[in-house]
Amino acid sequence: MQNSVLIKTEDLVKIYPMGEQSIVALNMVSLTLRRGEFAGLVGPSGSGKTTLLNIVGSLDAPTRGHVEVLGESIETLSHKKAAELRNRHIGFIFQTFNLLPVYTVYENVEFPLLLLGLSPAERKKAVMDALEWVGLADRVRSKPNQLSGGQSQRVAVARAVVKRPEIILADEPTANLDAENSHHILNTMEDLNRDLGTTFLFSTHDQKVIGHLRRKISLVDGKIAQDEILVKNTPGEVAR
Amino acid sequence: MTIFKLAVRNLLGAGMKTWLNAVVLSLAFVTIIWAQGLYKGMDNQASRAMIGAEYGGGQYWVESYDPFDPLSLQEAHRKLTGTLEDLVRAGRATPILIIQGTIYPEGRIMPIVLRGIDPEQKLLSLPSYFLKGTGPEIPAFIGTRMAQASGLKLGDAVTVRWRDVHGTFDAKELRIAQIIKTSVQSIDSGQVWVPLATLQEMAGLDNEATIVVADKNIRPSTAISGWTFKDLNFLLQDIKELVRSKTIGASIFYSLLLFLAMLAIFNTQVLSIFRRRKEIGTLMALGMTRGRVIELFTVEGTLHAILAALVGAIYGVPLLSYFFVKGWSVPEGMADSFGFALSEKLFPTYSAGLVTGTTILVLVITTIVSFLPTRRIAKLKPTDALKGKLS
Asked: Between chains, do B383 and A54 touch, taking CB under 8 Å as contact?
């Protein structure tokens, strides 16, 4: 399993129809991501970062080309199978945290485990582990509106990792955070990558995030302009 | 189970809006049960009153008798023989002779129906023993409505004129021996009750009757020549029809309430889907299928009905119990306007079937109303939802 390919795209094209015109969001993108990578899609707004992340996360389908995630072809996946893939194997972290507003911190983190049908005891252990990891074990009863931005994003990270997914897709995770919280979050993610071997794929144009990446994939106008390895032997790979 | 748990969390998390919807729906809930219970009680009360005072266990009618055609009364009489005579002798049936007449209260002419009944009868709850009096005047009792219409008071004497079997008109004095209060209009308005034997003698119809009221336990197995047995289903069908029409009238009121409650829930659902589209996107990103998201929102809506039942129970049980015990006073003058034996106090009847039926009805309607707006979710793309768009 070491160095196994988790994500593979071949000649990926995504076109959004806009009335009589159309916008090419991704243009012949071919990319391979291996287990344990800590990579980022970097580029200006409209370069196709989020579109690529959404397709890899099976939230969207490509117009053309082939996408394989954990051996599953995204373009042929049914809604149900795609939901199952996300539920079991992919964690999402969003720019605006996307916590469920009426749930407590504990319930937010517990949510993916409820969908997996885990027993209450298993859920409790996993939730508390995840919250301890992000340093929020003392805020289990708080509601999202009682948390700061940094705390909210840490809850979102805990929710993404609680089910121990193979892949975490983070869309501009630090865009709404100050420098201190950004570093805290990124350090937490690096720890998770190192300790659990979770593969991270970011979409970002934040220099703070780029500074932590070990692989930087630059997108311009929907095409890969540059694919750089910034640090060899990722901690995740070393751990295994 | 997970969906149910999540729906409960979401619903309770929505706070005031949830409770407002539940309260509005509970009003419809309690009103339906109250109104239906009231009409059921009204039906039971009216039926009981009419059975007790007029119908007994059913009636034998002379074949030519038509209660809606006063002209039929001239010919509608027949001698009591055989089985009927035996039943009357055994006290298991009581004959009533009905003829037309006229009274002259305070010099006015007033057409009436003279009803002869045995003063000794125990089958009907009429105070016929007041007709036992002797003297030159015929003892009679009337109802309060008749007393009001004629201006007659207890102890008053009034001239009555009738036509006997030979077509000869005759007249005599009646003395009002009693004025009875009854909810059964058909034995009151325009009716004057006199002793059967006296009326038979007046009309020259010895041992004859127009109808024979049977005991509750009589099950007529063989036909009696010249007589037709009318069972309670037949006799009470007008009341049932009237109650049904009143119930339909009332249902318009509570349907309106229910409609308002459903509108509130529909509106909440539509707003909820609009306001929570980002949350829907998140749920999908976390691995919920569209079907399960639809299920979640539908269950959330349906739970309003369960909450409404609980809220309704809090104030509805004491309120409905109060009416059950104390009754509901019919506004003055309204009792007679209903067209059947409506007493001044109505006692609602609530059955398990009524409560269960209402609960199921509200639950089914709420589920449908909750489901309809969620169909938009089926068309929602997770990426659009995450951006807060409705596709």
From this structure: yes
Which of A14, A55, A56, A59 is the best substitution to test chain B (most B C-beta atoms within 10 A)? A59
Per-position b or e across A148-166, b if 16+ CB within 10 A of its CB:
eebbbbbbbbbbbbbbebb
Q: From residue A115, how far is each of A154, A191, B189, B379 by CA, in Å?
A: 21, 26, 72, 22
DSSP symbol at A232: S
- Where b means 16+ CB within 10 Å and e means fewer, B202-241 reads bbebeebbbbbbbbeebebeeebeebebbebeebbeebee
Q: Which of B9, B286, B386 sits opposite A102 (nearest CB)?
A: B9
Dihedral angle of Cα B265, B270, B271, B274, to the nearest 10 degrees: 160
The mean predicted confidence, pLDDT, of chain B is: 86
> Of B66, B46, B50, whose CA–CA distance to B58 is shortest?
B50
Return phi, psi of residue B11, to 5°.
-65, -45
8 Å CB contact of B386 and A87: no
Do residues A36 and A234 touch, judged by C-beta distance below 8 A?
Answer: yes
For the entire predicted model, the pTM comes to 0.70
One DSSP character per residue, A143-162 reads: -GGGS-HHHHHHHHHHHHHT
Element (H, E) at A26: strand A21-34
Residue that has been written with the tokens 């997996």 in this structure: A116
pLDDT digits (tens, 9 = 90+) for B14-44: 788 888 888 888 888 888 888 888 888 888 8
- Per cent of chain B over pLDDT 90 is 31
**Which residue in B10, B286, B382 is closest to A115 by CB distance?**
B286
* CA A38 to each of CA A197, B108, B154: distance values in angstroms, whole numbers, following the listed order: 10, 110, 106
The whole-angstrom separation of Cα B372 and Cα B297 is 10
What would the pLDDT profile of B210-244 be if each residue is shown by its tens digit? 999 999 877 776 778 889 999 898 998 888 888 78
Q: Which residues in chain B have Cβ-Cβ distances shorter than 8 Å to A60?
A: 381-383
- Choose, out of B10, B289, B379, the residue to mutate when testing the contact with A (most A CBs < 10 Å): B289
Instruction: Spell out the domains of chain A, with CATH numbers in brackets.
Output: 5-239 (3.40.50.300)
